[in-house]
Specification:
heterodimer; A: about 260 residues; mainly alpha; MetI-like fold; 13 helices; about 0% strand; globular; B: about 280 residues; 14 helices; about 80% helix; transport (chain B); membrane (chain B); cell membrane (chain B); ABC transporter permease (chain B)
């Protein structure tokens, strides 16, 4: 079979670009097993010392735990608020609802540093600087757009006659929402929950502005580690996170097929 | 009147999220405008100082240049991937899609860290080149615009690929087939028939990448090493090093206005609703 130059160009090009996307991320893997105390490839042999360091250092472990529980609280708050919001807007479907939807996605468009300045000044007034509540509130705001977008996407396939039928059969508005609309929105809510968790789990700029010593998150530890001394523990943490991402993606792909 | 009542209950669902967004997000961001015009004294002093500063001018030029080059780079690389995924169905296509989406889920911080490991003075790339005796002294691949650009394109690429993929999935193959059967070569039918149909996806991707790049902080700050001061980093510099809230806020206002202008101009060519509100 004749394969044209056109096809060869796009096929090899695509694989080269994918290599550029994926391979650089994987360099942390060999680095994490280095037997040296600086960032570099293993010299004499492989070593697990940097993993041991991660799993025994209370600072790293506390920061990880904080990021996980803050992320779960944020994902829960953002999912509840964002789902209610998207369902309300879906029913209204008027100009005002459209404006509301645009307002809710502004955190996607405002540069991170600018919104963090705003948070900082406001959180000082509210006494929320360096508190977990302050971080949860900020992250919930940043996560809301993603929940609202994914729930709305799930609802775009819902037949508007279904809630109408429920209403005409005597269900109240809240009963209709709960029994008819929420089940249809469920895939969107699940996606939104995952997005919200990741937004919070990875967020760095806001945390740098609104926390000092009391609240330590994983991204903050990594950031400070990169700034101060380049310690291979970061490579071990990065490898663990990448492996977790790989497993989660694989599960996602397998469940879909 | 049942209809009015009904509307009220839908608004009850909308209001909690909307209220906290307005109180704790929109108001604080507007608060920055207030600071810009009132600190250290009321007036436009901060903006006058800013307009006269060469450092600010340089920073804006760098910001727009980096954002523009990142956008072009992401569009070219992203187009090739999106095209191959959408047009050549092989057994490996699902793998390709998974590999494109995967970096999306890896934190920007970790991806930037990987590039530091690769591009640093004694990083893996320099090590390998020295080892192979291709170079005598380490190349400067980082702490300059080159390093920032490489890492920025890497971080932003998925944002360009995804809208293009969504767009290309909706393009029917019959037009290219028609062009081919009428005698057009593969390249001609691509250029004249296929490519124009992909413009909405290309523009969506361009807008996303450009707007996100304008305000990006993490990657330029880590890979630039203080030598490639984009506006976001310049703002944090003013505030954290010099406690100059007035100038920092004035710069933030200009960055916000610049972002809004880009969106307004883009609205003429791009379907903003499809790009931002109804993203899949």
């Amino acid at each position: 079979m004749h394969v044209s130059a056109f096809k060869i160009f796009f096929q090899t090009g695509a694989w080269l670009v994918i290599a550029f996307l994926v391979l650089p991320i994987l360099v942390v893997l060999p680095i994490s097993f280095t037997d040296t105390s600086y960032i570099g490839l293993p010299k004499e042999g492989l070593s697990l010392q940097h993993y041991a360091n991660y799993f025994t250092d209370p600072d790293w472990l506390n920061a990880t735990w904080t990021s996980v529980w803050v992320g779960l609280v944020v994902a829960t708050c953002a999912s509840v608020l964002g789902t209610a919001f998207a369902i309300g807007c879906w029913f209204l479907s008027d100009r005002a609802a459209m404006v509301a939807r645009w307002i809710l996605i502004t955190p996607i468009l405002v540069p991170p540093v600018v919104q963090s300045l705003g948070f900082y000044r406001f959180w000082v007034k509210l006494g929320l600087i360096d508190t977990h509540v302050g971080v949860i509130l900020a992250h919930t705001l940043l996560a809301l757009p993603y929940v609202s977008i994914s729930v709305f996407a799930a609802l775009s396939n819902l037949d508007r006659n279904l809630p109408r039928a429920a209403r005409s059969l005597g269900a109240s508005v809240m009963q209709t929402v709960w029994a008819v609309v929420v089940p249809a929105a469920r895939p969107g809510i699940a996606t939104g929950f995952i997005f919200a968790f990741i937004v919070s789990f990875d967020e760095i700029v806001g945390v740098l502005f609104i926390t000092v010593r009391n609240v330590q998150t994983l991204p903050k530890m990594i950031w400070e580690g990169i700034q101060d001394n380049i310690d291979p523990t970061i490579a071990a943490v990065a490898t663990l996170l990448i492996v977790l991402t790989l497993i989660a993606t694989a599960i996602g792909v397998l469940r879909r097929t | 009147m049942p209809r009015v009542n009904e509307k009220v209950s839908y608004w009850m669902l909308v209001l909690p999220a909307l209220a906290i967004m307005v109180c704790f997000y929109i108001l604080p961001v507007l608060g920055i405008w207030e600071i810009a015009f009132t600190e250290p004294e009321t007036g436009v002093g901060n903006f006058v100082k800013m307009a006269g500063s060469n450092a600010v001018k340089t920073s804006f030029v760098i910001t727009f240049r980096v954002a523009a080059i990142t956008t072009v780079g992401c569009l070219i690389l992203g187009y090739i991937v999106a095209y191959a995924i959408s047009n050549f169905a092989t057994r490996l296509t699902p793998l390709m899609v998974a590999l494109v989406i995967l970096p999306f889920w890896v934190s920007v911080l970790i991806r930037s860290f990987s590039w530091i490991v690769l591009l640093g003075r004694s990083g893996l790339v320099n090590d390998a080149l020295m080892h192979a005796e291709l170079i005598e002294r380490p190349l400067r691949l980082m702490h300059n615009e080159l390093g920032v650009l490489i890492a920025m394109i890497h971080v932003m690429l998925p944002f360009a690929v995804l809208p293009m993929l969504t767009n290309m999935r909706g393009i029917s193959g019959v037009y290219v087939q028609a062009a081919r059967s009428l005698g057009a070569s593969e390249w001609t039918s691509f250029r004249q028939v296929y490519f124009p149909q992909t413009m909405p996806g290309v523009l969506s991707g361009a807008l996303l990448v450009f707007v996100l790049s304008l305000g990006f902080f993490v990657t330029p700050a880590l890979l630039g090493g203080g030598r490639v001061l984009m506006i976001s980093e310049y703002i944090t510099y003013q505030i954290q090093e010099f406690l100059n809230w007035g100038l920092g806020s004035a710069l933030s206002v200009v960055l916000l206005v610049a972002t809004a202008l880009v969106l307004l101009i883009a609205a003429r060519f791009v379907n903003l609703r499809a790009t931002l509100l109804e993203r899949k």
